TrEMBL record:
It comes from Tilletiopsis washingtonensis. The chain holds residues 15 to 311 of 420 of the full protein. It comes from the Eukaryota. Keywords: Cell cycle, Cell division, GTP-binding, Nucleotide-binding. The lineage of its organism: Eukaryota, Fungi, Dikarya, Basidiomycota, Ustilaginomycotina. This is Putative cell division control protein CDC3. Residues 21-294 form the Septin-type G domain.
């Protein structure tokens, strides 16, 4: 191997370096209370990031605006560390008048862009902290009808600022046929309103298996998800994460039952870097250049 230069080893170097530094990822969840946001996050990362919450007493004062709450956790799997931050948006869509529900969320995403921009402009920018939101899971109510005005308004306001990943919440409350036609109507609405959702890119220089896997993921959007932090015994004696019904068990990790596995595949196993890259190269870049133009730079 005389002519071997050695750059074929670059991927391993990058890999070792990232493993040493650890990975960071910030994910936002948006949708009305009770749609299963906290449960899905727990299910996705197999953590109790969100403790089961106590039901507030009826006389407790309810907040009147959308709050933004961020929680971080260091999770580790086979020696690889991931610093996960989840940005929750309690209150979204919960009020009598939800006209401006999207506003504090846009503000939060932009202030994270600003914090990054500010670091880039420093003289010493050795270590940039990336607290930008890399993905936003938007929970659609399982109505079976079509998108509601609040869904469309939110997605239109946000689609050029964050990678939008729409999911059909609590899909165990719909039949398979209802899910199929609901998905189609949701996609039609998204196309009609020219909303850009995150599309896992398919590169044709990848092997056939990867291409087929990616196409399979794309076909499932908007993912019909079911979350659960309970383990349940099935009739045939397996212990699974799922939800029990009189007629049987809905298994979270069973692709015949819901699209949870495909969502996890895209978000965590195959496209986390892609989501971060697209946030930096396209979404942040657009924000940054528009901001510089506005400042007359
Ligand atoms: P959040 O307010 O959106 O964070 O919703 P939570 O995760 O707190 O869940 C609200 C309630 O819905 C809880 O009682 C959950 O057990 C239940 N829940 C969560 N995910 C699902 C789901 O996929 N299907 C069904 N049927 N119920 C769910
Ligand atoms: Mg919650």
């Amino acid at each position: 191997l005389n002519g071997y230069v050695g750059f074929a080893n670059l991927p391993n170097q990058v890999h070792r370096k990232s493993v040493r530094k650890g990975f960071t990822f910030t994910c936002m969840v948006v949708g009305e209370s009770g749609l299963g946001k906290s449960t899905l996050i727990n299910t996705l990362f197999n953590t109790r990031l969100y403790a089961r919450k106590e039901v507030p007493p009826p006389h407790a004062e309810r907040p009147k605006t959308v709050a933004i709450e961020s929680i971080s956790a260091d999770i580790e799997e086979n020696g690889v560390r991931l610093k996960l931050t989840v940005v929750d948006t309690p209150g979204f869509g919960d009020f009598i008048n939800n006209d401006d529900s999207w506003k504090p969320i846009v503000d939060n995403i932009e202030s994270r862009f600003d914090a990054y921009l500010e670091q880039e402009n420093r003289v010493n920018r050795a270590k940039l902290l990336d607290n930008r939101v890399h993905a936003c899971i938007y929970f659609i109510q399982p109505t079976g009808h079509s998108l509601r005005p609040i869904d469309i308004e939110f997605m239109r306001r946000l689609h050029q600022k964050v990678n939008l990943i729409p999911v059909i919440a609590k899909s165990d409350t719909l039949t398979d046929d209802e899910i199929l036609s609901f998905k189609q109507r949701v996609l039609n609405d998204i196309a009609h309103h020219r909303i850009e959702i995150f599309h896992a890119p398919v590169y044709d220089n990848e092997d056939e298996e990867t291409i087929a896997e990616n196409e399979e993921i794309i076909r499932k959007i908007p993912f019909a998800v079911v979350g659960s932090d309970q383990e349940i015994d099935t009739a045939d004696g397996r212990r699974v994460r799922g939800r029990a019904y009189p007629w049987g068990v809905i298994e979270v990790d069973n692709e015949a039952h819901c699209d949870f596995v495909k969502l996890r595949q895209m978000l965590i196993r195959s496209h986390m870097e892609e989501l971060k890259e697209h946030t930096h190269d396209a979404l942040y870049e657009k924000y940054r250049s528009e901001k510089l133009v506005a400042m007359g730079v």
